[in-house]
């Protein structure tokens, strides 16, 4: 899962990003409205945490813009106590939820989980399942018929992308954008290495689930 944090209070933004990463989300953090809009328009995020008062362009304008572009990424607005009007305005403009600052990070995490819960067959907040294969968030591992195998963080993130989009081909560029970010110089063969690790691990726990290669395009799980 990839999250965009748009917040100009750099300490808060960086703290949020750290906490989200610790909970195994991939995170991009930007500190002004213009970058916020640019990133949001790429439509690669599973959730956007959006401050309202921002330099460059405010959160409500960003929201209006992305909804105009038919981007339906769940958005959680961060509001100050004095911004009640903005909050109502934000919900009218298509925000999915809001949090009033200061907030407890546990609450933000719970709301992100609630908003991103729609895809795939989710057993509970910390598990994702597909045809008997279970991906465990807390232990960063996969389980099939009592067989368990540990995953590295990148393997986990790739597996999560595949399992939330079963039978759909995920282009390699999309995997790179989501997991390594735009600025990264990860090469396509790096992904192939991770995929080959995952294939070995899938067969090690005895599942029939395969990661198929769509030549020149990407991967799908079947
Ligand atoms: Ca602000």
Output the number of helix runs. 8
- Into which percent range does the helicity of residues fall? 25-40%
**What is the SS-derived class?**
alpha/beta
Tally of structural domains? 2
Beta-strand content bin: 15-25%
Low-confidence runs of at least 5 consecutive residues? none
Number of strands: 13
Give the integer mean of the pLDDT values.
89
Strand order of the largest sheet: 2-1-3-4-5
**What compounds sit in this structure?**
calcium ion
Short characterization:
With 222 residues, the chain is an alpha/beta fold. It is built from 8 helices and 13 strands.
SSE layout:
Layout: E1 2-6, H1 10-22, E2 26-30, H2 33-40, E3 47-51, H3 59-68, E4 75-79, H4 84-92, E5 97-100, H5 105-115, E6 121-124, E7 127-130, E8 133-136, E9 141-144, E10 147-150, H6 153-164, E11 170-171, H7 172-179, H8 188-204, E12 211-214, E13 218-221
Parallel strand pairs: 1-2, 1-3, 3-4, 4-5
Antiparallel strand pairs: 6-7, 7-8, 8-9, 9-10, 11-13, 12-13
Bound molecules: calcium ion.
Residues 8-9, 51, 53-54 line the site of calcium ion.
Mind explaining what this structure looks like?
With 222 residues, the chain is an alpha/beta fold. It folds into two domains: 2-116, 3-Layer(aba) Sandwich (Rossmann fold), CATH 3.40.50.2300; 121-221, Arc Repressor Mutant, subunit A (Orthogonal Bundle). It is 40% helix and 24% strand. The protein has eight helices and 13 strands. Strands 2-1-3-4-5 form a five-stranded parallel sheet, with helices on both faces. Strand 12 (211-214) and strand 13 form a beta hairpin. Helix 2 (33-40) packs parallel to helix 3. The protein is elongated. It starts with a strand and ends with a strand. The relative contact order is 0.11. Bound molecules: calcium ion (CA). Residues 8-9, 51, 53-54 line the site of calcium ion. Calcium ion binds next to loops.
